[in-house]
Amino acid sequence: MIHELRLYRCMPGRLPDLLTRFETITLPIWRRHGIRQTGFWTTVIGDSNLDLTYLLEWDSLAERETKWLAFQIDPEWITRRAETEQNGQIVANVTNQILLPTRFSAIGNP
């Protein structure tokens, strides 16, 4: 099992819009595609309070590639995402890392 750590830095004032989009649009589409989230966090103390960080769980890189691509080209996602950005861009930038648990990790190991 691997995990993907993703960090979204929002445009000023747009974090509430991103949170709503994940809760009401993105997560239902992910469920349809079998994408599993482990958790979501906002930053209380740190570099920026404009950040949303979340963790996805994958069985393999192949699963990630297949399911993430299906999500990215999903017609509902494309349409609904565009609707949420009618008042401007929500996310300034995205970073991600693919993580492999160590043998002593509480989250499990390969």
Describe this structure in words.
This protein is 37% helix and 30% strand. It contains 3 helices and 4 strands; from the N terminus they run βαββααβ. It is globular, with a radius of gyration of 15 Å. It is of the alpha+beta class. The protein has a 4-stranded antiparallel sheet.
Itemize the secondary structure elements and their pairings:
Elements: E1 2-10, H1 15-33, E2 36-42, E3 51-58, H2 61-72, H3 75-84, E4 91-99
Helix pairs in contact: 1-3
Radius of gyration: 15 Å
Major sheet size, sense and barrel closure = 4 strands, antiparallel
Q: What is the residue-averaged pLDDT?
A: 95
Strands in their spatial order, largest beta sheet? 2-3-1-4
Helical amount among residues, as a percent range?
25-40%
Low-confidence stretches: none
Compute the number of strand runs. 4
> What is the CA–CA distance across the termini?
6 Å
SS-based class = alpha+beta
Strand content: 25-35%
> Helix count?
3
Q: What spatial form do the alpha-carbon principal axes imply?
A: globular
